[in-house]
Amino acid sequence: MSPIRHVRRPRPVTAGVAVTGAALLAAALSPTAGATDRPTRATALGHAASALTEHAAALGLTAAQDTEVRDVIVDKDGTQHIRYDRTYRRLPVLGGDFVVHLAPDGTYLGADRATKSAIDLSTVTPKLTAPKAADLAANALRAAHLGETLRKLTAKPRLVVDALHGTPRLAWRTDAVAQDGLGNPVARTVLTDAHTGARIDSWDSIETASGDGRSLYGGTVPLETTPSGSAYQLKDPTRGGTYTGDAGNKTDLCVLAVCLTRAPATVFTDADNHWGDGTGSDRSTAAVDAQYGTDVTWDYYEDVHGRRGIAGDGKGSYNRVHYGNKYNNAFWDDSCFCMTYGDGDGTQMGPLVSLDVAGHEMTHGVTSKTAALTYSGESGGLNEATSDIFGTLVEFHAANPEDPGDYLIGEKIVRDGFGKDALRYMDKPSKDGKSADCWDTSVKDLDVHYSSGVANHFAYLLAEGSGAKTLGGVAHDSPTCDGSTVTGIGRAKLGRIWYRALTVHMTSSTDYAGARTATLKAAGDLYGEGGTEHKAVAAAWSAVGVG
Questions:
Q1: Are strands 209-214 and 274-275 parallel, antiparallel or unpaired?
Q2: pLDDT tens, 343-363?
Q3: Catalytic residues
Q4: Could you please report the per-residue DSSP string of 445-493?
Q5: Taking a C-beta distance cutoff of 8 angstroms, is the pair 78, 37 a contact?
């Protein structure tokens, strides 16, 4: 058994302006409107037509405008809600939609309007041509998928009135669509000022759907998916198109770092957008864990460090689950920009799709795009430790009650035959029988999963301090190598300092002495030299023998 290893906006939403009052609530609660008096759709439309005429000024309607019914809802008590889209001189008005509310007898109660801006344009003739607007949108789609080969790219502009972004103005709304290298659809809608050519807004226009999944390790978790015909794909357009596929228990065939064939990543699909059943017998259950782990890792890096995606470019990676036959491993591969998870042999390990493992693997990708720490010697230990540190911080950030944060690595995936309750222990790394608690000259000769212990120990001490405490229901006790007492500064500061060091000060050859220097510089950058945080970094490194 080898340990976990490393192989080299939605559609804009506008706030409604509520102009309804207590009358709407009163009508909804009125005992006089019985179900037998419930208006029909045709009756509601007749009432609403009268309301538009009588309340045109309040609704901002003029002779140059027209309306089209989008939806009609009649409550059980007879209250009616008619939703309209608006046009101006036959052009669609973005932000022109509104909902009229009527009492059961058709009395006007009020309206909700997307915007209240008055629409009065001097002209609806654009200065920017449609082909130019199309070119701008196509370029925006290419920029959103920088580095990818896009095929069958088309862009279709349509003249509209934009009332969403301040004073109403003439604009081109252009839908640009293409296929990525995998043949999957990509699309972006670009809103361009039809007079100046300035971009007003743009957004991904492949619809997302909110589903949920029953995972192996995290309970029922939320998932963002992509509608595909009458089904859904396990692909998240809100996080760069990240998706999870089934490797079909196949493996890659690689010779001298060149892969002749790769295991597939057939995107999981589901009919009702409720994925998995929480057991290993359903192949999509492991996919739920992998996708969820990718989601929360993406969110951690974006929420805490402002980094959107592994490479910081907003692009997603992908996952392969069910790789190989009883494969006791998971790995990140730079060459495919993907994570791969084995199912485990069931004796030593179960499926390797736990939260901290997902965070660990994606972090290898972050490291490869930043310091690119060499995967050998002390640099390799720092590379592995970086993944353990951020995998742990992802677990805490997710705040999943089924998998609370702790400083154990892989505790969810180990089985009785493994002989221990985790893969690694950050409070006292030597508890795994192989990792180093303290630095000495022999550390460079250890496997990188064990030389990582020095940095993992440092990270625990910097965040939590020395001594005993219970975290995530797990007892931790971290002694120091020099007998000193270390006071922690918290996980948030640990994460900021290590991320700053990784992305600004470390290089591919950074060793432990260099890591001490890099993190001291990072602490100075963030909190000032000589302050509490700066001193704590120095003390924690000294406590693990790096000084």
A1: parallel
A2: 999 999 999 999 999 999 999
A3: 361, 449
A4: GS-HHHHTHHHHHHHHHHHH-SEEEEETTEEEEE--SSS-------HHH
A5: yes
